[in-house]
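Narrative of activities, Objective 1.

The group set out to show that a structural description can be obtained from nothing but a protein's sequence at a throughput compatible with the screening campaign. Below is one input-output pair from the validation batch, recorded exactly as produced.
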Amino acid sequence: MSLLLSTGAFASSLSAAGAPGMVLVSPTSITHSGTSATLGANGQVTFSAVTSLSLNGVFTADFDNYVLSVRDVGSGNLVIRGRLRTGGSDASGSDYTVQYLEANNTSVFGGRYTQSDFIIGATDSTVRSGDSVMIYGPNLAQPTATRVVNVGGNSSARITDAACTHSLSTAYDSFTIFMSSGNITGACAVYGIRS
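Output recorded for this entry:
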């Protein structure tokens, strides 16, 4: 493709099927606990006061890597957690290793631990939070990795950066967002990355 093409021609060629970029992926179905969750025609999921939300059928052989984008407000200061999922069941064993850093007000701290879920983000009850989650190779029969950047309004501005590895060589087709306590309201969307 010539770089001398007009902006319109260049933009049109990039939007063609098969061009590199992020492609919105619509779940085949959703399940939730809490007040409500709705799968929109464009693939975005909106939810109100949910304690868990599963997006089924979003990971396929079409893409190796994915981005989950979430905006939310919580019923309190909450950690939003995630689990990989296949065949309608969450992978809930202690196979997730998480490393995180958080800057909040004037404090910076972090940690490392192994547990039965990974970090999606964090939220509070006064200001909307945003989460961007990279998910590497979930539908491949190999260990899966995630990388999260979260921004929130706690102490005026907070940032959390977290990485996770899931040690099982399993191909997953879905994932679950959940809270250990409380609930969240907001919207999320999944994008496949086409290279």
